[in-house]
């Protein structure tokens, strides 16, 4: 099931990013630089006091033109209404009540979702009186916080998350027996819906689908070649709107949420256009989240006639897919069905690879051989020693190497070890992780 989505909305400068960063932490947050979409989509999976949720701030502006500003705020409200489980409306207690706030409140009043009406920048109790004019709004419960000074923030989110499920109900990522979860992701118009319809064929009956907690994310169980799958359908979000880039933000948020939940991401790209930053960005997010990844160039029926189409794509890949040569690249057409057979032969292989468990014996043989072939460089005149290696988890396969000096392992040597490990066992389609830990004593 989807994580609950909490959307922070409000006019520019009321402190949305400050609040977002306080919750998400700069290093965990994804601030997505997506040309054509936004420079400022803030998205993070947050664990707060044992509750897990997705936090999004769609705001921030690249223009201050007043009409566009109004349109942007309206689109934010629309986004929150359509996508979020919980809405946090932020207002500026220093600036005071603004007509635009009143407009937003009017729009939100008819929404049957939990809404938190929050006055920010109440940095000291003496400022509390400033916020009294906000009572004119007549909202059920007005809260004041200071995002910058971290006053009232914890209390606010304790309320927000009270009914969320516990994060401690461990995710079943290590369960090898449940159906493989597959999500088709990619920019708008790459062919996700067409692809999903083609795969599910006549069986596509939304009414038989298991609805997720989010109306738009629907999990569809299906069987192909005796393999059970769950398809995480992100294609339901296609609305025409006046503010096109906000529509695209819906799509991006849904794609990122799907990536949080899936085992394998089939990332679609339109073969008629060169690789875009948006596609590469989704790819690197999937990599960060440790997901299985297949890159599929769709719509090849439109390019196949050109003699050099494959060479052109390969040239593009060589230039832009640096360090990701383990990602299987496939070619197909949702329209004609071409390539789908091969795709569904590859998915089980990626699944097998991401669940691969290597025993300590072979792993240590690998380690010994890798180090013998290319010794680790000295670190501050100390020789690096690697004692032994074990696998910690699967999905993604993650390994621990015990060493006399974890901090002394140069990134280029780590990369060497990872590449050797990929030669040693099949890990096509899955990220792998290598961690180094200190250990004084050598293994007996
Ligand atoms: P956004 O445009 O809504 O994302 O707003 P920002 O988070 O970028 O904040 C706008 C400005 O308000 C920045 O200068 C922040 O430092 C400031 N700000 C944010 N929260 C607070 C607060 O609680 N108190 C005060 N005094 N300033 C704040
Ligand atoms: P989505 O936004 O990613 O779900 O994209 P859609 O599935 O709605 O497809 C966008 C457009 O591309 C539609 O007009 C589709 O008919 C078209 N399309 C999708 N897949 C293919 C394909 O393989 N070949 C061709 N020629 N058109 C396609």
CATH class of the largest domain: Alpha Beta
Tally of separate helices: 11
Given as residue ranges, the uncertain stretches (5+ residues, pLDDT < 50) are 31-39, 202-217, 235-242
Largest sheet: 7 strands, mixed
List the domain count as a whole number: 3
Based on CA atoms alone, the radius of gyration comes out at 25 Å
**Helix/strand structural class:** alpha/beta
What is the H-and-E element order? EHEEEHEHEEHEHEEEHEHEHEHHEEHE
- The overall pLDDT, averaged over residues, is 83
CATH superfamily of the largest domain: P-loop containing nucleotide triphosphate hydrolases
What small molecules does this complex bind? guanosine-5'-diphosphate
Portion in beta strands: 15-25%
User: Could you say what the CATH architecture of the largest domain is?
Assistant: 3-Layer(aba) Sandwich
- In one word, what is the shape? globular
Q: Estimate percent helicity.
A: 25-40%
How many strands?
Answer: 17
């Amino acid at each position: 099931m989807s994580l609950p989505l909490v959307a922070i909305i409000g006019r520019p400068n009321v402190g949305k990013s400050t609040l977002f960063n306080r919750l998400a932490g700069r290093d965990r947050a994804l601030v997505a630089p997506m040309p054509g979409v936004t420079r400022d989509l803030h998205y993070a999976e947050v664990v707060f006091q044992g509750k897990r949720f997705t936090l999004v701030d769609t705001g921030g502006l690249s223009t201050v033109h007043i009409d566009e500003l109004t349109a942007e705020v309206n689109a934010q409200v629309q986004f929150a209404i359509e996508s979020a489980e919980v809405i946090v409306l932020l207002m500026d207690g220093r600036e005071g009540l603004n007509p635009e706030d009143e407009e937003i409140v009017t729009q939100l009043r008819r929404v049957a979702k939990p809404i938190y009406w929050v006055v920010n920048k109440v940095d000291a109790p003496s400022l509390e009186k400033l916020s009294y004019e906000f009572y004119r709004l007549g909202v059920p419960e007005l809260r004041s916080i200071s995002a910058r000074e971290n006053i009232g923030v914890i209390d606010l989110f304790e309320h927000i998350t009270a009914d969320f499920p516990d994060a401690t109900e461990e995710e079943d990522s290590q369960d090898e027996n449940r159906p493989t979860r597959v999500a088709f992701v990619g920019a708008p118009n790459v062919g996700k819906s067409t692809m999903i319809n083609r795969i599910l064929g006549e069986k596509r009956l939304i009414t038989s689908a298991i609805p997720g907690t989010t109306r738009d994310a629907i999990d569809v169980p299906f069987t192909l070649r005796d393999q059970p799958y769950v398809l995480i359908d992100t294609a339901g979000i296609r609305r025409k709107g006046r503010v096109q880039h906000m529509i695209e933000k819906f799509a991006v948020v849904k794609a990122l949420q799907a990536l949080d939940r899936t085992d394998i991401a089939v990332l679609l790209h339109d073969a008629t256009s060169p690789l875009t930053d948006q596609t590469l960005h989704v790819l690197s997010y999937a990599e960060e989240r440790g997901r299985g990844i297949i890159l599929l160039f769709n719509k090849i029926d439109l390019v196949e006639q050109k003699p050099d189409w494959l060479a052109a794509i390969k040239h593009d890949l060589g230039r832009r897919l640096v360090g990701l040569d383990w990602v299987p690249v496939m070619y197909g057409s949702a329209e004609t069905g071409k390539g789908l057979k091969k795709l569904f032969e590859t998915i089980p292989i990626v699944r097998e690879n991401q669940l691969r468990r290597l025993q300590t014996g072979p792993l240590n043989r690998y380690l010994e051989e890798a180090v013998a072939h290319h010794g680790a460089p000295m670190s501050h005149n100390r020789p690096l020693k690697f004692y032994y290696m074990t696998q910690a988890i699967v999905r993604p396969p993650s390994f621990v190497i015990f060493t006399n000096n974890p901090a002394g392992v140069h990134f280029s040597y780590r990369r060497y070890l990872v590449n050797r490990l990929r030669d040693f066992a099949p890990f096509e389609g899955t990220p792998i992780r290598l961690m180094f830990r200190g250990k004084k004593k050598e293994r007996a």
